[in-house]
Design a protein that fits this description.
Helix content is about 50%, strand content about 10%. With about 500 residues, it is of the alpha/beta class. The protein has three domains: about 50-165, no CATH class; about 165-270, Rossmann fold (3-Layer(aba) Sandwich); about 300-365 and about 375-490, no CATH class. Helix 5 packs across helix 6 (about 110-125). The protein is flat. The protein starts with 16 loop residues before the first helix and ends in a 5-residue tail after the last helix.
Length: about 500
Amino acid sequence: MASLTPWAPQAGGTHTDGEAELLHLVAPPVGVDRDALRRSWARVPAPLRSGLGWLVVADVLLTGAVLAVATRQAGMGAVSLTSGMLIALLWCTALGASGAWSGSDRSAGLRTVLRAGVGAGLVCWAADAAFDPQVTSAQLLALTIVLALGALVPRLLLLVAAGNRVVRVAVAGEGDDVRRLLGELGRGPGGRWRVSAVCVDTDDADGLSAAREHGVPVHDGIDGVVAAAASTGATAVLLAPGARLCPSTARRLSWDAQAAGLDVFLGTGLLDVAPTRATLVAGGDLGLVHLRATTEPSFARAVKAVTERWLAALTILALLPLLVTIAIAIRIDSRGGSLFRQTRVGCGERTFTMYKFRTMAVDAEHRLESLAHDNESDGVLFKMRSDPRITRVGSVLRRYSLDELPQLVNVVLGHMSLVGPRPALPQEVAQYDADPQHRLVVKPGLTGLWQVSGRSDLSWEESVRLDLHYVDNWCLTLDVLIVLRTVRAVLSHRGAY
């Protein structure tokens, strides 16, 4: 393929005014050599480039600072130099043993610090006055908590920085693999991924077509991915193993990329798998990914069920005056009862009666067929922005999601969860294929990823994918994050109609 070469003056000649002006326009600023900077950065040891070296330095400095401050301010008395060094050694050993100083930036994260804190805390509790007769086990435990909180600070900063950092990658693969990668990388949060080049063979029509569709420059040959990354300013290569990119070729390319100071990412072909449920294990000479199941009964699931029921019951009691006020307003505004009861499909395809505040006229179900041609949904759902069946009070309730408050009763009864997939209608389930059917392996939720990500503005495919992501990657932390995002979604009114 043709390539651009830098313009240069004739040998031995002097620059004319026009040539001098051209040089002024195209030449980089004096003293800035980006290639030299990249080469210099590549010579920096890999742990420092990845951030792990900085974590070690930050942990050691913070440990020293916390011990210096805590021994003077926390009422622990004068701790001897030997005792302080022992505490620092214990804490640094706990961090190293927990994996806080190994792995990638994200894996050297919050869980490792918590493990280190538990381990060091147990040692301190057992040691009691072994460090210093004047220091009790309670004081040592308090000091361990402070050290753990201090170690969390640089890791949180790294996570924030990593989330905002744009990764420029050169992609190598073939056909549908390249097309899928380009599509998914474009969906990344905050546009984190930028594809600077696609390397496919010249006879790979599908790969060439995918690159053209996404407006990404094409470089000839999978083997040229490292050179393509260097020429386009990419900081990493992304390899998609396949028929044209066998494991041995991928290994060789990873060697070349690492020697050039580039990060290496390997496509697995897995969709919507959170890193927290994937573990790399050995299968002979092959690297295998073990996926942890999240839908089976567990202690965390039991905690979720009990906690949600209690929270729902307490919320009903706290909001009882508001619930009564809404019920009265509905009765005054339009004919009919204040509650709307509807059959929904829950976990294991068991049906239950779901409660909501009525937001439509009492004959809404009978008028649905006449409005079928106005359906704005692209799937099995019925959506209409200006639905004539919605009452005046109902439009306000929907805008602030107040119509869903009676579902707290369903949570108390165990039909639903506070957080989960969208509760489905029986006629919708009758049209499900294999993918949306998987949503029914857990209880539906009063809120979920579908609600905090746009609600009715989402397409059918997007809402299904969000629900499947929640089901397959569930954890208590995810529930907490969704609840927090629900508050913002309700206040923004996005997709509420």
